Amino acid sequence: MQKKRILITGCGGMLGQAVYERFSTDYDVKATDIDVNEPWLSYLDVRDHAAVEKAMLSFKPDFVFHLAALTDLEYCEAHPDEAYKTNTLGTENVALLAKEFDIPMVYISTAGIFDGQKDQYHDYDTPNPLSHYGKSKYYAELFVRQHLTKYFVVRAGWMMGGGKKKDKKFVAKIVQQIKAGKKEIFAVTDLYGTPTYTHHFAQNLHHIIQTRYYGLYNMVSGGGATRYDVAAEILKILKLDSTIQLVPTTTDKTSTFFSQTYTAPRPRSEQLLNLRLNHRDLNTMQDWRVALREYIERDWIHEV
Ligand SMILES: NC(=O)c1ccc[n+]([C@@H]2O[C@H](COP(=O)([O-])OP(=O)(O)OC[C@H]3O[C@@H](n4cnc5c(N)ncnc54)[C@H](OP(=O)(O)O)[C@@H]3O)[C@@H](O)[C@H]2O)c1
Q1: What is the CATH number of the domain that holds 134?
Q2: What is the tally of structural domains in the chain?
Q3: Whose CA is nearest to atom 28 of ligand 1?
Q4: Is residue 251 part of a domain?
Q5: Helix, strand, coil in percent for the chain, rounding step 5
């Protein structure tokens, strides 16, 4: 039987690595990005409607997975025009073409569309993004939800994955400090989120696209955490908790550590609950501590 075909945008990043690994075994995948950092990637810029159309016309995908985005919050805050052009308009381009070609679209959204007034957010809660990154992703989500019927909008939390080559986020930042020989590591105790392991996310995505239960899904690893909790767990897994001191800090303006490095507004809490996945009995995500251990043992343990 002929394999189904998936066109993936933004596949050169943290999540793309795991999605490519999971899907290329049983789908015919055309993986694209503007950062062509793997032999299996080809160039495609989602801001260019004609280029996406050309890729669809020649590859004839059965699905389009849209991962492409500018994901650095500080960069998006400083360059809002670029953020909206890539994250919102780029998504509109892909959605318009998914509609024209009548294929289901997967769009990866984010927990960062909430304002943090609540402790936890389920799928039906109303977003109120604070940052340009959050807004650009939310307007894109709205476009997909308003214009398509065959879509999976899947919201991830604090992404963990990609290893030495691709991880741009918290786990890599902590491991880099360990590698640099730091004996004191600072982590905030007043930001709450749900870590999301890319490989488990890709596996659960594989599961849901087999169904026709289209719509919006929160899809994060189980349980919630602060950044401090995640850093503490990393040290524990690496058996460095007695040699490196983890210093609790806060996002308070008086904390120069945080306010000078992280200038974009962040919600106090962006913890998600996988309510709809649970209700449909489609939730295969594991606890974040289990996921973090799997990630560290797979990608980082030999680096420190
Ligand atoms: N990272 C997180 O914590 C997180 C959390 C929730 C949701 N998400 C969402 O998950 C998706 C995947 O993110 P990720 O974590 O894998 O981030 P990532 O590592 O930054 O991957 C995104 C990829 O998209 C590429 N890209 C940027 N502009 C593009 C364009 N115009 N056309 C095509 N590709 C473009 C990026 O290239 P450059 O590196 O050159 O910019 C990068 O390779 C994104 O939609 C993101 O918003 C991420």
Answers
A1: 3.40.50.720
A2: 1
A3: 69
A4: no
A5: 40, 20, 40
